[in-house]
Amino acid sequence: MAGVSDILTVTNHEHFFIARDEYKGAEFPARHFYVLGPCARNTAPALAVGALCAQERYGEDVVLLILPANHLVHDTAAFAAAVGQAQTLASEGYLVTFGIPPTRPDTGFGYIERGRALEGGAGWEAARFTEKPDETTARDMLASGKYLWNSGMFCFRASLFLEELGLSAPEVLAGAQACWAAAQPKGDHVKLDAELFAKMTDISVDYAVMEKSRRVALVPAEFDWSDVGSWAAIMDLTAPDASGNRVQGPALMVNSRNCYVQSAERMVAAVGVQNLMIVDTPDALLVVHEDHVHDVKKAAQQLKFARHESYRLHKTVPRPCSSYTVLEEGEGFKMKRIVVKPGASLSLQMHYHRSEHWIVVSGTAKVINGDKDLLVRTNESTYIPAGNKHRLENPGRVDLVMIEVQSANYLEEDDIVRFEDLYRREG
User: Fold this and answer.
1) Could you tell me what percentage of the chain is helix, strand and coil, using 3-state DSSP and rounding each to the nearest 5?
2) pLDDT the model gives residue 315
3) Host H or E run for residue 374
4) Using CA of residue 285, residue 287, residue 292, residue 293, what is the dihedral sign?
């Protein structure tokens, strides 16, 4: 966006390398800095720490545009115009939020009631926030024409936000200040202290500040918008066929109507069904009636409570400048497909329990295996006994793809000792 020279991203430290790679792929012409938290603590703690970071880096009265990562906007010109309105109001001393004109009585969004019109027609004062209503209330709000969906996008001066946070939720501000005081920036990122951040109150910015402040302005969002926050929203991104079915990936639809099917690899056949969402991933299979898409989180909560591995682990796991996919595992063995990006190097490490057999599928691997330095090319392999120090590097200009076969009675990911690591991971 024109006028944006710096992007400050607040995310979990496990998502750092994914976020950095996504920005590189987008080739966005801006400087980037990352604030990395150890756990989820909702939007108020995240914005509080982000505002403190922004003040230190860019000045006390820097104007911030707050954008959640999961929103989709196609009409960038109209979006930029709305941001321009919001920036003006933010400079005049408002906490600005963007209101989305509702198109249906959706119970999955919060709503904001329009108050007094502001001078110049730039927007309105926010009269009242309403959390996700029941269907009857949502219909009444839609019919009144006074309510907009709460987008969760904001624009404000960092100093004003922190001032209002101190008035309405002083414990959140105090926790953020303690976290930031203990933080130690390294290059393009900073990791927050795990113990201090975990102690912060788990609360949204709406509850903590926006619903309590009298300095909130509402700018209408005259652009297309999706929060991509539910499977229903994702379904809307795919055009339907003549039977109302929306399909992404291999699928066979027989006498079925108004269904959404997404499959990463396997063929999905839907026969004689209606109004279903079927999502097949390497990790799990989801089947849900469209009237219950908001209940999907209940299934996730049950998996989390049961500590099921499908909640904790994924078949494909991103790593700094690499990734691995578990292909198969059983008693005493595990097979992975490993991809290492050009010029990247994994840590110098050792395993107490497992031995590994590396087979190069494409590219060339530069390998330290004990006291040997090797170049392992396509269709070649090397064996690494348990206890051997080893390192994998891609010296080429294309991705290195290899198969790793692990053998041991203990194959968990914590069986690792790192001696040197460019990415400063623990272990």
Assistant:
1) 30, 35, 35
2) 79
3) strand 372-376
4) positive
How far apart are the C-alpha atoms of 300 and 165, rounded to whole Å? 31
> Can you say how many angstroms the Cα of residue 196 is from the centroid of all Cα atoms in its chain?
22
**Count of CB atoms within 10 A of residue 387's CB?**
12
Q: How far apart are CA 256 and CA 244, in angstroms?
A: 9
Map residue 138 onto helix, strand or coil.
helix
What pLDDT is recorded for position 424? Answer: 57
Q: Who's near 2: CB < 8 A, 6+ residues apart? A: 80
| 48-68 CB burial, b ≥16 within 10 A, e <16 | bbbbbbbbeebeeebbbbbbe
| pLDDT at site 394 | 96
Q: Do 279 and 251 form a contact (C-beta atoms < 8 A)?
A: no
CA distance 219 to 82: 7
CA dihedral 303, 304, 307, 311 (to 10 degrees): 70
DSSP 209-234: IITT-S-EEEEE--S--B---SHHHH
What is the distance between the terminal CA atoms of the chain, rounded to a whole angstrom? 40
Amino acid symbol at 32: H
Asked whether the beta carbons of 378 and 360 are under 8 A apart, the reply is: yes
Say if CB 158 and CB 54 are below 8 A apart. yes
Strands 260-263 and 246-248, bridge-based pairing: parallel
Would you call 89 helix, strand, or coil by DSSP?
A: helix
d(CA 375, CA 125): 66
Give pLDDT < 70 ranges for the chain.
Answer: 1-3, 312-313, 421-427
